[in-house]
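Form 7-S
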Amino acid sequence: MKLILIIVCGFFVNSQVLAQGKYGHNWVLGRGNTYNYNFDNQQLLVYDTNYKFYFRPGSSCISDSFGTLKIVSQGFDILGNSGTPIENGDTIVPVEIYIKQGGRSNYSQSSIILPFTNDIYYVITPTASDFEVLNYWNVPNSGRALFDLLLYHKVDMKLNGGLGKVVKRAIPLLENVQLSKTQMMACRHANGIDWWLLKQAHDTNLIYKFLVTSDSIYTYQPQGFSEPHFTKLDIHGQSMFNPEGTKYATVCLGINQLFFADFDRCTAQLSNPTIINLANHQIQPLDTTSEAAPRGICFSPNGSFIYIVKGYNIFQYEWGEPDSALAWYHVANLDTTWDQFQKWGSSYLGPDNKIYIGNLGGVGKAMTTIDNPDIKGAGCGFCPKCFQFPKIGAGNPPCMPNYELGADLPCWPLDNDDVKRKEEDFVVYPNPASTILHIKTDLKKIRELYNSVGQLIISTRENEINVIHLPGGVYYLKCGNAARKIIID
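Output:
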């Protein structure tokens, strides 16, 4: 199902309980020896030590709003908290890629789980069709191995005696398109309930956008930017929002640049795009080769810094600092001796406001953290191998959006210019109105009338709106970034 909509929802819905739940307070991670780390009590509990599970960069997990682990995925199955596939949750991607990848996704951000009330969850999985794998992945020298599918799966955890069931399975959001194997992230809608899902295309900087609601998923118009032109080496990379959901950033292996833009949580519009050339450093102390291979990014809790994770180096970037010589700080080169170094992988902000940095390869016993990421320079607290595992198997953090982000209402917060604009520059009368609503303004924007639950009722360029047919109640008239509350009686 693909439906073009503009939805501005939930003006009066109190969503703070939903938005502030403990959905991200359990992490399931590891390779072979796998563990459930509970951030509330800082306990590392055994998930499996029989080498049954490999939670690589494409894995994800989620707890309920009270912090009880509910769903785990390695990108190819939907598992319960005990590691058993929930009903209808096994092999949720096409068979050929499942077999080729050994039942687990090796690509970062290739699954994500989005929660709703009433124990409803959506699992999103970009993947490759059987046709793509058979005709390109499995053909020597084909020069192509793409993702060409974006699927969603709806889970109702109330069913099956509380063990859960996939009630919608492998529903295509995109088909026969060229998608990055990585670079997918979600951000809460400004209503504090729904979710925006952004997925990068392969090669070009085209960004697909979807609105995920408790009932369905709606396809929005994608946005394209001329730069950066991502290369075909897309086996690693990350997209990320800042904690407030107002900035979007992405990197991909193969191009030494960061794409950075403003994000509107109400409309999902990306604006003010900026291309940032990444800092470089040698691969290792005894090798002067400069590394240009970004693999992950993570915003600091206060949003002032972006941490760029390359295979051999970690950088801190202060995006608001205009002097590039001052904006960049080289955090680290290695977190252990060279012969033991596994290279860094994905990075995510934990509920404790530390940044956790995964291992790209190998089966070590620890992950590296940045303990004070809001502090500029050396004070950021680079802590090599400080997240310890009882056994070998430490891999990458699970893919998670900021589950704790609340609502930002109304959906069109006034910017500085709108605050300064005199009231008489956007006059709406009479108010209350019963027949004709008159508009007096020099704004050359479409006039949009929304009802109290965010549905677009009327869109016009006229300065008179007939409201006689509308039921009485509260409405909002939007013109550009300016808005007025209207009473219709």
